């Protein structure tokens, strides 16, 4: 919006420069504010691969090859260049954000290896008994499945088998996602199926035979208004929920429906110190608003100053998905999944486990899970401790 396109090149208006006319020649931001706008999710300015110019990253492409790019210079396609041939993905694939996506018949980090079997044979070897490639739980490389493993110890983990057909996560009751206790501790897991000990029944051996209720009645009583028994945060036995982790009173309610951890910001402050938490929702003091009471209703900025701080790198106000208040973007509450300083993030991109975003053991930050202490994994599904408080 700051120039004209002439034969594939931008001719910039006065006061703007850059290959896309994205940089102003004069800047009204302080260096500190500018640098804050250029930090990636690890708080590194322009990912260490560029310089910050008035809140926008200028990526280091000394040879003019445009191999380093992205809003925060986070993509480096030089990683795709093969050392021997000097070609990107050895000419047998395409590079996207530093990763090679290989053509059929080629594999390897740089698409440098060719398969010695036909595509038909590759597919045949990787097809699981249910007709899916690697059971949709792995990647087929030259006729062999590499399973998506979630075990931090380096052992075979929860997903295994020649075609990743065995998923032992199916043996874990919802509440067991933070332990290695399969089949509720009352059975043996065999390729994703629980064989229960005497006195126990249910798909996950969670139901005592002595209980007067059926498995379905018990589950329905524990489910309440949630889609999962005990809201996915507790143990259901004979219609009663025990919330987990034990000893953490932030998770409570008849069906463990209240999770007060949702009221905490990244620093552990409850409702930003400007409100109280009730059943996982903040009730703000007068003069404050927002999901975590993080916005003050008072503002000492002019409308123009406020809007200038809410513009994203492409010049759009809050990425077109929110409103601007006192120099900060307030993302549309109707679209719960929109987040980020400029409403540029889609939290639906965060990984799920047990049907929950970040497994309920962390918060989604710009499409990536930030796990609470003691948890790890793409979806915060792995507990690193040995026992619970």
UniProtKB/TrEMBL annotation:
Lineage: Eukaryota, Metazoa, Chordata, Craniata, Vertebrata
Domain EGF-like span(s) in chain numbering: 79-112, 125-165, 170-206, 262-294, 349-381
Superkingdom classification of source: Eukaryota
Keywords, ordered alphabetically: Disulfide bond, EGF-like domain, Glycoprotein, Repeat, Secreted, Signal
SMART domains: EGF
UniProt organism field: Leiothrix lutea (Red-billed leiothrix)
Keyword Transcription among record annotations: no
Pfam families for the chain: EGF_2, EGF_integrin, EGF_Teneurin
Classification via Gene3D superfamilies: Laminin
GO MF terms held by the record: integrin binding
This protein's GO CC annotations: cell surface; extracellular region; focal adhesion; integrin complex
Official protein name in the record: Integrin beta-like protein 1
InterPro entries: EGF, EGF_extracell, EGF_integrin_2, Integrin_bsu, Integrin_I-EGF_CS
């Amino acid at each position: 919006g700051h120039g004209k396109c002439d034969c594939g090149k931008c001719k910039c208006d006065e006061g703007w420069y850059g290959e896309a006319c994205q940089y102003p020649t004069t800047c009204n931001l302080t260096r500190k504010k500018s640098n804050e706008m250029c930090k990636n999710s690890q708080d590194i300015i322009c990912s260490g691969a560029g310089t910050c110019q008035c809140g926008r990253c200028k990526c280091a492409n000394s040879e003019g090859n445009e191999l380093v790019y992205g809003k925060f210079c986070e993509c480096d396609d030089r990683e795709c260049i093969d050392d021997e041939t000097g070609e990107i993905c050895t000419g047998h694939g395409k590079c996207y954000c530093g990763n090679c996506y290989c053509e059929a018949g080629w594999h390897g980090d740089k698409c440098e290896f060719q398969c010695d079997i036909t595509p038909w044979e590759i597919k045949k070897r990787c097809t699981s008994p249910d007709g899916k490639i690697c059971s949709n739980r792995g990647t087929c490389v030259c006729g062999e499945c590499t399973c998506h493993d979630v075990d931090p110890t380096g052992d075979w983990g929860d997903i295994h088998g020649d075609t990743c057909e065995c998923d032992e996560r199916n043996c874990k009751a919802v509440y067991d996602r933070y332990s290695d206790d399969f089949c509720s501790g009352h059975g043996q897991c065999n390729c994703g199926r629980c064989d229960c000990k005497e006195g126990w029944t249910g798909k996950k051996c969670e139901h005592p035979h002595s209980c007067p209720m059926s498995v379905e009645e018990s589950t329905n009583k524990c489910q309440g208004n949630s889609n999962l028994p005990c809201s996915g945060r507790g143990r259901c036995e004979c219609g009663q929920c025990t919330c987990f982790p034990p000893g953490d009173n932030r998770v409570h309610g008849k069906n463990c429906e209240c999770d007060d951890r949702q009221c905490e910001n990244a620093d552990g402050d409850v409702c930003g110190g400007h409100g109280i938490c009730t059943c996982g929702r903040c009730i703000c003091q007068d003069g404050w608003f927002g999901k975590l009471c993080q916005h003050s209703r008072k503002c000492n900025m002019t409308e123009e100053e406020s809007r200038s701080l809410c513009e994203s790198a492409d010049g759009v106000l809050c990425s077109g998905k929110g409103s601007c208040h006192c120099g900060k973007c307030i993302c549309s509450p109707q679209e719960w999944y929109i987040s980020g300083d400029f409403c540029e993030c889609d939290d639906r991109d965060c990984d799920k486990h047990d049907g929950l975003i970040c497994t309920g053991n962390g918060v989604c930050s710009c499409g990536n899970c930030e796990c609470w202490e003691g948890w790890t994994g793409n979806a915060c599904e792995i507990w690193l401790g040995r026992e619970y408080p």
